[in-house]
Structure formats: structure tokens, C-alpha cells
Amino acid sequence: MEPILLGVLTAIAFVGGVLVTAVGPGGIFVVAALYGLTTLSEAVVAGTASVTFVGGSALGAAGYASSDDIDWALAVPIGVGGALGTQVGVALNAAVSRRLFGLLLGALLGVVGLTIVRSERGYLDRGGGSRGPDAGLGGPGAGVAPASLAGIAVFGTIGLAIGTAGGLFGIGGAALVPPALVLAGIPMIAALAATQVAVVFIASAAAISYALDGAIAVPLVFAVAGAYLVGAFGGWRLAKRVDPSRLTLALGLTLLGLVPVLVYRSLTL
Asked: What does pTM read for this prediction?
């Protein structure tokens, strides 16, 4: 691989690591870069990305655990459901072409980006100003105790669906868990903390499956994973010090901007 391309991928991985612990969605940029800037197969893209996310998420989980922000009753059902869903996603990955993979990834970026933009703009337009770390959107999940049978069923199902997407695309789930939880009424910091734990489950399960199939780009994965890990540490510190609302809005707009790029890249293969 050319040094310039390796440098670009490493830089994107660093930024993705910062974003994933600061605002949630971030690793999806790594997947988009591996797909759009290289000729790696869809399986190797997903496998390499999954390995990348394990270390960063474990570091993020350790950071949030040290500050006692993790609701384990919330995080574990999502993680276990996600690990199960990952196996479905890995099987689906084997059934799609590289072109279809890119189109589906573009659609996913569009959905996530639109969801983020709509929720953040709605909050700011209501004069919300700075969204505090304990602020949620008052959705249905706010009234469900995670440790109850209903809570385990609800959040386990959310994890199952997110894990399927995580296994298919190798996104780990960090792009999907925070929006889903915040829209369900879970406070922002609690959602981010639970995300780190869930992604450890999801990314580890996907990484093992793809590694067994030999679908990991070595030594590229070491450079990308290392940069992502460093970024994740910085992102956790950032999340504790700044208001994430406007940064999250910018992230959503960026995701929407990537959609036509991925679609064009897919259609010109």
C-alpha cells in the first residue's frame, strides 16, 4: 500500500476514534474509507474494521467505567443481543457483492445521518442550547427499567438488530447504538457509555468470525487500529468537557455528504 494512502487511512481512523467515544458514530468513517479508498473485498473491509473497533471500544468502556457512567443492566443486553445478531450479519456479508455492499453502506450512512440531523436540529430549534450529559429525548425507553424482563427484551432486540448491521458492514454498532438509545429517551452520557460495552461484544464477535475466514488485512489493521485507539482515548476526555450537540450535528451532515460519494464509488466499480 502506498504511504500516502496509509497515512490518509490512519488519519481517518484517528478521527473516527475521537468521534466514537465523544459522540458515538465515528467508526463508520473507517468502514467508508476502507471501502472507498481501497480495493479490499467487502468481507476484508468488514473484518479489518471489526478488529479495529475492539481495542478502541474496550478503552472507551474502561474510561466510562472509571467515571461510573456505565449502566451495566442497559449495556449487557444490548451487547449480548448484538453478538448474536453479528453472526447473521456475517452470513449476509458473504451473500452480497462489493457493489451492493457499497450501496447498502451508503443507505445506512444516509439513515444515520438524517436521524442525527433531525434529532439535533429539533433540539437546538427548541432553544435547547447546550445538551447536558444527562439529557435524553424522553422517548419510550426512558420509562423501561433495563434490568426488568421488558427492558432485557427491548434492549436485547435493539442489540440484535444493530449487531446484524454490525456484522454485515463491520461498523461495530457505534454509529447505531447512541442514536437508538437517545431517541428512546436514554441520557447522552449513559448512551455513549453503554455503546462502548456493546461494541466490544459486537466487534469482537464479528472480528472472530472474519478472522476464522481469513478476512483481515494484515498489517494494515495494526496501523488503523493503533490510530483508532489513540483517538478513542482523546474522544472520551472530550466528551466529558464539551457540549456534544453541535459536534453531533456536524457529524450527521458529514455522514449525509458521504452518501453520494459511496453511491458513485459503488456504481462505477
From this structure: 0.81
